[in-house]
Amino acid sequence: MLHRRWPSAPRLRSLKHSIEPMEGDEPRLLQESQRGDLAAFNRLVERYQGQVYNLALRMLRDPDLAADATQEAFISAFRAIRDLRGTNFRSWLLSIAANACRDLMRAAKARPSFSLDALDTTPGATPASSEESPDDYAIRREMGRAIQSGLEALSHDHRLTLVLVDIQGLSYEEAARVMRCSVGTVKSRLSRARHHMRELLGRRRELFPDQFRL
Amino acid sequence: MRLLPRGEHRRHRQDLSAYIDGRLETRRRQALERHLAQCTSCQEGLETLRRVVALLRRVPQAPVPRSFTLTSTPAPRPSWTVSLATPLRYATAVAGLLFLVVVVGDLVAQQPSAPAAEVPQVQDIPGARSLEGTADAGAAAGAPASQEKQVIPEATAAPQSLPLVKIEKAPETRAEAAQEQGPPGGFTVQNVFRWGEIALGAILAVLVALMAVQWWLRRANQPG
Predict the structure, then answer these.
(1) Buried (b) or exposed (e) across B79-98, using 16+ Cβ within 10 A?
(2) Are B67 and A49 spatial neighbours (Cβ–Cβ below 8 Å)?
(3) Three-state DSSP class for A129?
């Protein structure tokens, strides 16, 4: 039963054994979901669907497959939520999502045919900020494409590690729980993935603003 | 800058990523910082790696294309279809491989020894005479005289075709041969292969049936 009170997020990040805190009513929502309350579970879905979908999108590179994987992950999570004991919900959910992505990847043999437009924050719409010129928006969009191309060049494990830690913001420990490996493995995979990305992005340095130019 | 062994330099570069995240243990962090104070190449490497990390952390999140909330309670999936899927797959593959090995082994084990040719008895060959008891024949053949009878047909004018020669085995040899083959249905090489084929074939059939049921149940329980 998830009845512990979690400290606030900034303090916890300094702990070595970081168990990421749950927001406000999340323990209650989890308890109710474990009792079969679909409405409570859907509140959790709304809270985490963005993270799950983006993880799937970075891994599968195809928006339709990513949507399938996301839906499958939430269905599997609802079926299995009664078995959740004392584990961080987010890492547990992302672990299910990572497995769903792997299964779909095997089944569909995902090809790099997806539209990079899916990664635009506002595809085809006005720039995100009124202070951002169309040129800046175009450059930002190209940067996103370059980054995604770099991700696609990584192996599955390296890509997953980079997405979880650097893009999704998980800690080493959370990423280790998601990938069911040791923190040391996360550390070494992350190091190789970052160095590889640096080499790949270094070939497109003209896209990056000065502060990010490699 | 003093020249470092290549391995040590590579290790410092590998530590840069954990150093950026503050996840390097104290001793290695201090060693890296001492190295960075002297190595401009690694300083540049650290700076570019920081920029890569900063860039990745600013990657925008794509908006979700739709809501993924569940509209109805999913039907519970029979647990064994999930938990046994992978073990079933591996077990079927192993059983299939073993079955193949046993079948091939059986085929190889059945390679001839060619059966002895059927020849007429000594008394059936016209003009033939037995050399049994002839000391010269036994010595000339170089075989134990008590073990074999050699039959050499006498030359006759009429027949053109050569009569067949039969080498009869003494009873002791027959008994030895029978003992080698063993009693019918007993522990012989051929029987081992045969029973192995039957057992593995049965196991394989059961596993394939289980996989078919599991596959059908998973498809039946898939949403939509």
Answers:
(1) eebeeeeeebeebbeebeee
(2) yes
(3) coil
- From the list A37, A10, A11, A13, the residue with the least C-alpha distance to A25 is A37
Asked whether the whole model's pTM tops 0.80, one would answer: no
Cα separation of B59 and B65, whole Å?
Answer: 18
What gap in Å lies between CA B58 and CA B177, rounded to an integer?
84
Tokens 């039963």 map to which residue?
A1
Global ipTM: 0.76
Contact A195 B67 (CB under 8 A): no
Q: Which residue of A has its CA nearest to B58?
A: A167
Q: If we measure between CA atoms, which residue out of A42, A36, A43, A41 comes closest to residue A82?
A: A36
Q: Give the tens place of pLDDT for each residue, B6-26.
A: 677 888 889 999 999 999 999
pLDDT tens for each residue of A35-57: 999 999 999 999 999 999 999 99
A121 inside 8 A of chain B by CB = yes
> Taking CB atoms and an 8 Å limit, are B59 and A144 in contact across chains?
yes
| Cβ of residue B67 closer than 8 Å to a chain A Cβ | yes
